[in-house]
Design brief:
By secondary structure, the chain is an alpha+beta fold. 31% of the residues lie in helices and 18% in strands. It has one domain. The radius of gyration is 22 Å and the shape is globular.
């Protein structure tokens, strides 16, 4: 970009310009100003921000959301700046914007998610044609490193919350331990290989509509079952592992996202189980006698009040189990992402369409 073009770009942008001294190192300067998540970020020069803005048809000064905890306005330009810093390409920007919009709803409750001492942070599941258009990973190592779109979209949301909203660890972010997913936790669902309708369709959108689903989740935990060859057997394993979300005696107040791998999905497919049936079967296996849940039962002080002793209590509330399909084709391993507090006391998942 020429000097004249760069000057014109700077004139169009409204964000405060920070000029560094000739002897300042850009990466170190951004660390010192508190703009990073602990890893180096890309300097958001006017040229880079202008290039990022080509990824959306929205005007740079359009309001995206009011970002907690400080309730600061985030424009498309501000989202683009943080997308640059995260390492995004311009074509990722609509997904970043959709994630910011979803995170800043009262339903998702990003402020509460920041303030909790639990491990949780925003998990982004992306669905629809855009996942293939921008090259997101839904296969081998889908929840891990190595894919630029997965890594930077989730990171961009976290940087918006930090740099625009003021949500910094040790301040409003009060997590006792935290977890690596608070850098970034974003993946695409494998819709092509799935035996079921995609997550966004389960949650009410059309299959051809690209969308993000935000879930307030902890780090993924492994779920292994290499011997079950019927859906009934495998669902029993899934239920036993799901029993441990938050605490084996914690019920109704915490959701879970189950990421089913292709080999496990094949077992369910060959048994003819729909996603709805899987959820129903898991729910039936997770009806827990109150005598196992009350305080002191099993030698554990945690638990419900004695009044629940003669009750049967479900582990999860209605709608509290989300199912997505992703992962490599080898390995009878799936994953459970435990949730934070659900409903009015915490967060509900939000599915939001991706615009242009």
């Amino acid at each position: 970009m020429s000097a004249d073009t760069a000057d014109a770009a700077a004139d169009r942008l409204r964000s405060r310009r920070v000029d560094l001294g000739a002897a300042e190192d850009e990466a170190e300067a951004m660390f010192e100003r508190g703009w990073t998540d602990g890893l180096p970020v890309v300097p958001p020069t006017p040229e880079r921000v202008e290039r990022m803005l080509t990824g959306t048809t929205r005007a740079a000064d359009d309001l995206v959301a009011i970002v907690p905890p400080n309730l600061v306005e985030c424009t498309v330009e501000k989202a683009a700046i943080n997308a640059v810093m995260a390492g995004c390409r311009p074509e990722y920007l609509p997904v970043v914007i959709a994630a910011v919009e979803a995170a800043c709803t009262d339903t998702f409750n990003m402020h509460g998610l920041l303030a909790t001492t639990w491990f949780s942070g925003p998990v982004i599941v992306v669905n629809g044609p855009i996942t293939r258009a921008i090259g997101m990973n839904s296969g081998v190592n889908a929840l891990g490193q190595g894919n630029r779109a997965n890594a930077t979209i989730g990171r961009a949301l976290q940087l918006v919350v930090r740099n625009v909203g003021g949500g910094k660890p040790g301040e409003v972010d009060r997590a006792t331990l935290g977890q690596p997913g608070k850098y970034t936790f974003c993946f695409a669902e494998d819709e092509v290989g799935s035996p079921w309708e995609p997550l966004h369709v389960t949650r009410g959108l059309d299959a051809e509509q690209s969308a993000v689903t935000l879930f307030a989740g902890e780090a993924p935990r492994g779920l292994a079952d290499q011997l079950s060859r019927t859906a009934d057997q495998l669902a029993t394993t899934f239920a036993a592992c799901l029993r441990t979300v938050w605490h084996p005696k914690a019920v109704m107040a915490f959701d879970a996202l189950v990421v089913v791998s292709p080999e496990h999905a094949r077992v369910f497919r060959e048994s003819g189980w729909s996603k709805e049936r899987l959820v129903d079967e898991l729910g039936a296996r997770l009806q827990i006698p109150g005598e196992d849940l009350v305080r002191g039962a099993g030698g554990m002080a945690e638990g419900l009040d004695e009044a629940f002793r003669d009750s049967i209590v479900p582990k999860f509330r209605d709608g509290g189990l989300l199912i997505a399909h992703a992962g490599g084709g080898a390995g009878f391993f799936s994953a459970i992402v435990g949730g934070w507090a659900s409903g009015k006391l915490g967060s509900d998942p939000v599915t939001h369409p991706v615009g242009t």
